[in-house]
Structure formats: C-alpha cells, structure tokens
# Entry
Amino acid sequence: MFTKQIDKIILYTDSFPPSVGGAENALYNIVKFSKFNFLVITGSLEKQEEFDNNQNFPIIRFSKKVKLLSKAIILYENFSGIIVFGTLWGSLTAILLSKVFGQKTVLFLHGSELKTIVSNKYNVKFKIYRILLKFIDQIICNSNWVQKFYEDHFQKTKNPLNVFTLGVSKQKINIKDVNPYLLHYKSQDSINLLSVGRLVWRKGHDTVIEVISDLIKNGKNLTYTIIGRGEEYKRLQNKIICQNLQNRIKILTDIDDMFLQLFYKYADIFILNCREDKNYIEGLGLVFWEAGLYGVPSIAGKVGGVPEVIINDMNGILIEPDNKVAIKNAVTQMLNDKHYYNNLKNISKKIATENLWKNKINIFETVVETC
# Structure
C-alpha cells in the first residue's frame, strides 16, 4: 500500500494535445482536474508552444524517441513518485525503465489497443506487450467492457484491474468570429444531425450518409454535419457528391474545440454508427456524453463500451451497426414523437452532467493513492 504523500506524478504518453483525439482529451483532463502535481512527458507537435504556454503544469516534449527516453532515464533515477502511462503504445521501453528504477506505475488501458494486442497474438511485438502488462502495478480500464475483455483474453495477473469510465468537460463559449458554415447550420429551419469522430471505417459514417440521403429525398428537412479528419474523407465526400447533397451533408475537417461546442449546441440529434473491426472497437464513447451536455440525444452503434454510455430509450437509441432500417426508424421516431424526444434530451443532459470530470476525478485519485 502506497501511503506517503504524493508530491508529483509523471504522465508518460504519446497521446496529448494539441493533438486531437479521445485519448488526448481524456489524459489532458485528468491532469487538469486532478489534485496531483503532474509533469507531462510527450512528443513534439505543431502548434505545441502556444498550447504549452497556456497550461499551469510543466510539459517536456522531444521530437525523437531516443531523446525522450534519455530524458526519462534522468527523471526516473531521481523520481520517487508515481509514473502514469497514458497509453500502452509507445511506452514499452519506458515501462521497463520504471521497473529498473523501482517506480510505482499506473497504466490506462483502452479498448482498441487491447483488441489489437489480442488480434495479433502471434506477432512478436504484441507478445512483448502482453508480457509488459504484468509489470504494471495498477491497470485502469476505461470501461467495464475493457475490463471483461482483458479478463477473457489474459491469464489472471497480480496487477489490480480498476474500472474508471472517463469524464467529459464543457467549455465556456467565447468566440468573436463564427465559422461561416455554422451560421448557415444555425439559421436553417431544419433538423440538424451531427457526427464527431475520426473519418475511419469503424465510425460508420458511410452508412449514415446513405440513410440520411434517403430521408432527405423522401421529404425530411434534415442537415447532416460530420466533423473529423481521416483516411475515409475522399470516399465519404464522393458519396455525398454522387447523391448531389453537398448543400445538406457537409464534412468539416478543421473545427477546433471551441467551435465544436457550438455545433453541439445547435445540433438536434447526435449519431455515430460505431462498428467493430479486427483491430479496433469503441472502448467507451465519450463523444456521446459530450453531445449530451447540450441536451442532444444520440443514435449509437451497439458495440464495445458504448452501451455503458448510451442507455437505450433513456439518453438515446442503440442500433445494431449498419442496420439501415434501425437507423432510419430511430431518426424518424425522434422526429415524430416530441414527448419521447424531449425525454431523451432531458435525460441526456442529466447523465452527461453526472459524468463531468469534476464529479468523478476522485476515482482516479483513489487508484493512484492505493498504488
């Protein structure tokens, strides 16, 4: 049992802002809301200087992993606190170093990286990762699904498994220059549907585009906005052009967090047709709670940890991935049944508010204090 005062924690991660993503946001908010003093060690990024200068905690960045590890060795030798690894990827050598110097360690385990390890169990690299997990003092799973998946695929180890469903935060909106498309999006007398997530196959944007296209062609007054970047951009854009719906369906790739809050604010329905593939799965799905903070109910693919965030007929509707009839029926039900829709809105906001970081960061702090 670790009982002495914790003066400082090192967060070692390759996922941290200003890079955009679920892991990046989660780790940033843990540092921001926790009572502990953090030192963040991470990689170099574009626009990092402006971001780093606005934080009230130190950040050490290096462009090359050799330099990063060299600095880690110096820090580890003289460090008596706890080292938290934000992700397993990129932390292999750093975790071994922590054992050499006798540091206590905590690892955040995410659904997709765990599934990738299991899917590549005959690959030497991933065999090493499996062994590496045994060196961690405390593992934090970001959902009950991740915990069960770990227990189903790994031999029982000594390291305790803790479930900590990550939180969400709501920013104050303070914008002078509004995105031109947002003005159009806000002013339309239509129902606004929104998706936020990387433009990758497992997010299922293509199927939603097809369903929304059919609904629009059948007379429904809808707009659909997808916010994100990724490898699927060209294919999705071509699908929109083929349907001749460029004025109703938009993909926006350069929206910062502040503008994103406004898109949530003016959305009527949030939708993400999450899928599972060989290496990736939605381990939790915080983006649904982010929409919920603005009273926006969700239509969500029922995979991984998503049912822990979206409770069917409470704060949204769960659908089987790629079931076009189910997606169409879910949208139609929200449009036609105002009483049902308003209940979803109210409960969405209530559940999301309960999961604000300030209301649950103490769970993380307790795990660290018992390391």
About this structure: The mean pLDDT is 86. The domain at 9-167+356-369 is CATH 3.40.50.2000 (Rossmann fold). The longest strand covers residues 38-43.
